[in-house]
Amino acid sequence: MARKAIAKDQIVKLIVGAGQAAPSPPVGPALGSKGVKSMDFCKEFNARTQNYVPGTPIPARVTVRPDRSFTFELRTPPTASLLLSAAGVAPTKNKLKGAGNAAGPNSNAGLEGRGKSSNQTGPGAAGNSSLGTVGQVSLKQVYEIAKIKTSETRLSGIGLEAIVKSVIAQAGSMGVVVVP
After folding, report:
1. What pLDDT does 22 receive?
2. Sign of CA dihedral 150, 156, 160, 166
3. What is the pLDDT of residues 94-107, one digit of tens each?
4. What letter does residue 138 receive in the DSSP assignment?
5. What are the Polar residues biased-composition ranges (predicted)?
6. Contact 155, 149 (CB under 8 A)
7. What's the CA gap between 113 and 128, in Å, rounded?
8. Strands lying side by side in the sheet with 70-74
9. 19, 31 in Cβ contact below 8 A?
């Protein structure tokens, strides 16, 4: 005979645009399979994200209890989307996209953003390096992004300087140049 499983909380992680939650995919199927009414989540999510710029991707961590009630916590927007919006990158197909394999912050390529060194030359060399850099951000903007990220509880043990270094490294890998 099989033992009955003990019911426990289930966690669903979603990334939804601020103010754009709807019971259609990805929200509907993810919560519907857990027995949660997705319309209730959408109304509450949209109400809590009304102070964000519409469409900004907001990660949400939804905890579903065995009685099908739920709670959720909002996290800060991903660092990549904050960097691209600070750099003024125009959305492509309603999404912000970086350059890909562009030169990092410690590279000799500088503002040229030539990308990774490889034997290939021309527009198709080294992944998306043909895109070069997609924009520039100042150190002040990097500091503001790091301040936003420090408000998140899971990053509370990390110092501001370490978060700033992380943001600068991510900017380099995305093709966003950090200028003093």
Report:
1. 86
2. negative
3. 555 655 554 544 55
4. E
5. 116-131
6. yes
7. 11
8. 10-17, 57-64, 70-74
9. no
Radius of gyration of the chain (CA): 20
Domains in the chain, ordered, with CATH? 10-74 (3.30.1550.10), 76-96+131-179 (1.10.10.250)
The Cα–Cα gap between 153 and 170 comes to 21
Put simply, whether the predicted model's pTM sits higher than 0.85 gets the answer no
ω before 29 within 30° of 0 (cis)? no
Residue-wise DSSP of 31-66: HHTTT--HHHHHHHHHHHTTTSPTT-EEEEEEEE-T
103-143 residue pLDDT tens: 544 555 544 544 444 444 444 434 444 456 788 889 999 99
With tokens 């960097």, the residue in question is 83
- Written as one letter, the residue type at 43 is K
Nearest 5 degrees, angle CA 160-CA 78-CA 11? 105
Residues contacting residue 99 through CB under 8 Å, at least 6 positions apart = 113, 128, 129, 131, 132, 133, 134, 174, 175, 176
CA nearest to 164, candidates 135, 132, 140: 140
First to last CA, the chain: 68
Between helix 160-174 and helix 139-150 the angle, nearest 10°, is 120
5 vs 161: which has the higher pLDDT? 161
